[in-house]
Amino acid sequence: MAVGKSPVRGWRSRLFAAGTCLFLGIFVGTALLFIAADILYVDKKAVMTVLTSGFIRQALWMSVWTSFTTTALALLFAVPMGYALSRYRFPGHLLADTIVDLPIVFPPLVAGLTLLVFFHQTAVGRWIERAGFEFAFQPRGIVLCQFVVSASFAIRSVKSAFDDVDRRLENVALTLGYTQWGSFFRVSLPLVRGGIIAGGALTLARAFGTFAPLLIFVGSFRGRTEVLPTTIFLEQSVGNLEVALAVALLLIGVATVCLVIMRLVGGRAVVQQ
After folding, report:
1. How many CA atoms lie within 13 A of 168 on its CB side?
2. What string of pLDDT tens digits covers the 273 residues of the chain?
3. Per residue in 132-165, is it b (16+ CB within 10 Å) or e — as a string?
4. Where are the domains of the chain?
5. Which candidate, 18, 25, 22, 20, places its Cα nearest to that of 10?
6. Which residues, other chains included, contact 260 with Cβ-Cβ below 8 Å and sequence gap of 6+?
7. What DSSP designation does 138 have?
8. Alpha-carbon distance 266 to 249, whole Å?
9. Distance CA 119, CA 124 (A)
10. Which residues in 21-129 belong to E strands, given as ranges?
11. Could you tell me the CA-to-CA distances from 270 to 100, 194, 198, 247 in Å, in that order?
12. 3-state secondary structure (DSSP) of residue 2
């Protein structure tokens, strides 16, 4: 038996390894039992409803395009922000770094409530809506909610990737005649490709499963602002628990795929560096 690259020697080491793996087994086994319970509860009729319902297909499409749009926007912000947080020290750096992480730790419900108050109770928010950029109870509001609660994951992932890049490589590029832009695009950016993809996968999974802020800020109107998480809410609220669980399993599958991609790409990035 081996832990990492070091073999486990002696009965004390084996006992210690078994004890730690026991906790891992209990946690993973419990999670698999929960998922198995959902799978066994869902019947064929519920699966067919999910596959054939026009409302659910529309909610699926809404989830797909909004989540991918959110992920693209998050990465657009994450690359320059991650680089700035990693490479520069400026007044307010600690505050900025802390604010980036706030959406990860505060309840998502707060995001929806904050957006609702901003656009309905502040002069700036009302001006934005009067200018034609309506977000409340609109599909574009879904993207805004998803961005607020998920962009931090992309920023943090990209920043960590830049932290792992040896700055001497950038300095060497500068001595060879590259500009700061050239050093960034030809040296730094290719080296953090894995972190960008991993951050995008995690952001996509988080955006795909966003629920609480959407319910407050854009509502759950069928055919207009319904996404898969709100479909689960709507179906269980009328007693269709089997259909709700079938949709939930679809969300679990999407999240699992995104997390696997994140770990595979992240692992390759570490090996390459």
Report:
1. 1
2. 444 555 556 777 888 888 889 999 999 999 899 888 888 888 787 788 777 777 888 888 898 899 999 999 999 999 999 999 998 888 989 999 999 998 888 888 888 899 989 988 888 888 988 888 888 888 889 999 999 999 999 999 999 999 988 888 888 888 887 788 888 888 888 889 888 988 898 899 899 888 888 988 888 887 788 888 888 888 888 888 888 888 888 888 888 887 887 777 655 544 444
3. eeebbebbebbbbbbbbbbbbbbbbbbbbbbeeb
4. 1-41, 44-272
5. 18
6. none
7. S
8. 25
9. 8
10. none
11. 24, 8, 12, 35
12. strand
What is the number of other CB atoms lying within 10 angstroms of the CB of residue 45?
11
Kind and range of the H or E element at 128? helix 123-130
Give Cα separations from 28 to 3, 23, 261, 262 (angstroms).
Answer: 18, 9, 19, 19
Full-model pTM: 0.82
Of the options 3.40.50.2300, 3.30.360.10, 1.10.287.1080, 1.10.3720.10, the CATH number for the domain spanning 44-272: 1.10.3720.10
C-alpha 81/C-alpha 103 separation (Å) is: 16
CB-CB neighbours of 111 under 10 Å? 25
Residue pair 252/208 in contact (Cβ under 8 Å)? The answer is no
CA distances from 31 to 27, 34, 37, 224 (A): 6, 5, 10, 34
Residue listed under structure tokens 């001595």? 175
